[in-house]
Structures are given as C-alpha cells and as structure tokens.
Amino acid sequence: MKENDKLSKKQLIFCKEYLVCMNATEAATKAGYSQKSAYSQGVRLLKDARIKQYIDKRLMDRAEKLDITPNRILEELGHIAFFNISSIFDGMSLKEIDSLPENVTRAIGSVKSKTEKSGDGFAEVTEVKSNDKLKALEMLMKHLGMYEKDNEQLKQEKVNDIKIVVEG
User: Fold this and answer.
1) pTM, entire model
2) Which of 48, 52, 65, 93 has CA atoms 20 to 30 A from the CA of 31?
C-alpha cells in the first residue's frame, strides 16, 4: 500500500497546498473546506499523524535536496551575528563588493546605490544594510539553550533575595 493511499483526496490536496504556502487555513480552503471552518480544519489536519508524517517526509526531502542542514544554518547565522561593519570599509570609503570575503557578503542583506545632487554637482550614495544581527544572535542563543540558562540563574537569584519579615 502506497503512502498516498492512506490519505483521502482532500487530505492529500491539503498536504500539497500546505507545502506550498505553509499556512494551514489557506491550505484547508484550497483543499475544499469551507472558509468558516478552514482554521479549525487546518489545525485538526496538522495534528493527524498520517498527514504530519506525509508533510514531514516532504519537508525532509526538500531540505536534503537543497542541502539544508543544521550546521549550514548555524554557520549562516554566525556570519550574520558576528558581522563587523568595519570589514566593508577601507578607511572612510566602501570597499568594492567583489573584494569582500564571502563570510562578510553573506551577512549583507542589501546594497543600494543612487546619485544625489550635492552642492554644485552630484554624488554617488551607497546604502548597505546588514541582515538582522540581533535576531541572528537571539536565534543562536535559543539554539544553544542560553535563554534557559539565564532564566535558571534569575530564578536562583530571586530565591536568594527572598526577605523574611517577622512581625511581633
């Protein structure tokens, strides 16, 4: 018996649509569930073990095909989290983008250039935006369990700070 035989036609459509949009309500609507019940049906369908297995398998296949591994994701987050803005400058001038090392360019989110009027002439203005450094640091901290460690330390500090007041 094939894996698809375990799912109804509507469930299979839901799965395929969910893999496109990653939104259970939208996928349920496209699979033919009513607008009114799409949210609850989507939640219910995602809890179904057969549907979860089907979706998880397709997501793993997709990640494998694209060579998306936890190590590659952590490496990319590391480039963003530890990006140093000074690495794109040579004194007060921006370095040429193709002269920057890969670990630096991976942290850059966008580069925009425009010509603006400046005094008697025109000047080339370049805007460089890095990817969200704080978000990358936060994601790394969560991955490494640092938030939990900080929370445990805070709990311990609060226990140690308890004051006992005795009225008499």
Assistant:
1) 0.61
2) 65
- Could you tell me the residue ranges of all domains in the chain? 3-65, 69-168
Condensed to tens digits (0 to 9), the pLDDT of residues 99-119 reads: 999 999 999 999 999 998 888
Q: What crossing angle do the helices spanning 70-81 and 133-143 adopt, rounded to 10°?
A: 140
Q: What is the CATH class of 3-65?
A: mainly alpha
Burial classification of residue 35, based on how many CB atoms lie within 10 Å of its CB (0-12 exposed, 13-18 middle, 19 or more buried) = exposed
Structure tokens at 65: 């095909």
The DSSP letter of residue 95 is P
Contact 106, 76 (CB under 8 A): yes
**CA 132 – CA 144 distance, rounded (Å):** 19
Using an 8 Å Cβ cutoff, are 137 and 116 in contact?
no
